[in-house]
Each structure stands twice: as structure tokens, then as C-alpha cells.
Amino acid sequence: MSTVAPSAGRLLGSWALDPPIVGLLVTAAGLYLAGLARARSGRGRDWPSWRALSFAGGLLALAVALLSGVDADAQRWLSVHMLQHLMLLLLAPVLLLWAAPIRLGLRALPPRGRHVLGRMLASRATRLASRPAVGFGAFAVIVLGSHASGVFEVALRHPAVHALEHAGYLAAGLLLLAPLVGSDPLPRPPGAIVRFGWLSAAMIVMAVPGALLTFSPDVRYRFYLAPARALGASALGDQHLAGVIMWIGGGCAMFALALGVAMRAMIAEERRQRRRERHTTQAAGA
Asked: b/e per residue, 179-194, with b = 16+ CB within 10 A?
């Protein structure tokens, strides 16, 4: 039996416009564009274009995950479903966070709005939510709780539960990554070593369901037996591919983020050292 998943052309060639999702994406895009226009006309004229492109990429990742053929074929192929989960857990959150929407809001809003947003950032709830341990806990619960329990199968059979599961993945990814790779001014940002450690721990979390799917001798989610028979495919072979996607794909993504954090820290330290050397030289010359 074939275990080949659908082609990229099939996954990206068919779209279903779900009004609530389209509305949320359009609203988010409109708010960011309005903030960008206001910021560039005032104090924030130096707002980098790559941040706007990153936000657009994040919205595009959400659209592909939830509106394209990826969402439709996720009901037929577990491997495609795992790809969808990676887009919601990692790709979309990283791109949205690199876009620094809160920092843009602080530049674009009028004084009263900046005051309100600043108070929200300084609130106890924000301080708690921005702790890496909280984000890691939420990430671990949603990833392990959904993939290693019966929740995954329930979500496959009930659209409302499935929608909540997707929202949980996106929220968990944002909570985990906001203090680790985000660009927004959160309270008490962790140091580079702490960030590297939490990202490495998250890599292990991603590996657990990946290993369960890769090495399981039986089909874990019986929902996929019927689609596999209809497609003339092997449900177990597709499950093993899904495990590799979650394990290797998720692990590589986390490792790349951790490596990026380490490199940024090294570059920042090198720049600080150069500034100290310049100041020392100037002081000696005076």
C-alpha cells in the first residue's frame, strides 16, 4: 500500500473560506496596517519593513494551516495533521512575535492608549504569563495532553473541539515563545542562557509524541483507518511519517530558534565589548 502523502500542489491548491477565521485574519491585518501607517507618519518612521513582512507571513501561515487543503487533508492523513500542528505551534507564533505588534502599538497609539497598554504590560497577569515556566507548562500540557491522550481522537470527530484544540496550539506557542524569541517589551525578559534552556526543553516535549507515533507498532488514532483504506494507503506508515514530522521537524525548528538566541547573545556581547573598548580608549586619550 502507498504511504505517500498528498503533494504540495494539492495541499495549497484548494481553499475553503471559513468566515470566522477569515474575519479574524483580516481584522488582525487591518489593525497592524493601521498601526504601521500611524507609526511611520509620526515617531516611528524607522519601523523596519521586515517586521511587517513577518506579520504578513504569520497570518499567511495561519491561513494555510486553517483554510487551505492542509486543513481538509488533515482529516485524511495524520502526517498532514502533524504538519498543521507545527504551523500552529511554531511557525505562525514565531512570525507574529517577530513582527512585534505590542511594540508597534506603543509607537502608534495616542498617549492615552500607550498609557493603557503600558499598564497592561506592567500588570501582574502579564508578568505571570510572560514567565518562561508558565509558557513552557502551557506548551507541554497542550502538546502532550492532546497527542498522548484520547483528546486528539475526540477533536477529530467533533469540529468544535477541533477548533478549540487549534486555538490552544496557537495560544500555547505564543505563550512559550513570546519571552524567548519575541521582540515585544515584556517585563523581566530572561537572559540568553535561560532562553536557550527553555527552548531545549521544549524540543524534548516535541520529541515525545513524535517518538510515540514513530515507534508505535499499532495505529494510535483509529479515526485514520477508514480514510487510509479509502485512499489505498497504510495508516501505520502514515502515522510513522507523522511522528518523524513532529519529532524531527519540531526538534529542528526548536534547535534553530535556540541557536539563533545564542548567536544573538554572542553578537550583542561582542558589540558591548567594542563599546567598552572605545570608551576606554577615549578616556585614556583625554
From this structure: bbbbbbebeeebebee
Fill in the amino acid letter for 58: G
Distance CA 181, CA 194 (A): 12
Is the Cα torsion angle 129, 131, 134, 137 positive or negative in sign?
A: positive
Q: Tens digits of per-residue pLDDT, 58-117?
A: 999 999 999 999 998 999 999 999 999 999 999 999 999 999 999 999 988 888 988 999
Tally of domains within the chain = 1
The answer to whether residue 40 is domain-embedded is no
Work out the mean pLDDT of the chain and round it to a whole number. 89
Whether 143 is covered by a domain: the verdict is: yes
Whether residue 19 lies inside any domain: the answer is no
Please state, in angstroms and as integers, the Cα–Cα distance from residue 58 to each residue in 12, 53, 145, following that order: 16, 9, 25
Residue 198 lies in a domain: yes
Which residues have a Cβ under 8 Å from the Cβ of 211 and sit 6 or more positions away?
243, 247
- The CA–CA distances, whole Å, from 250 to 156, 178, 210, 255 equal 21, 17, 9, 9
44-63 tens-digit pLDDT? 467 889 999 999 999 999 99
55, with CB counted inside 10 A (0-12, 13-18, 19+), is buried
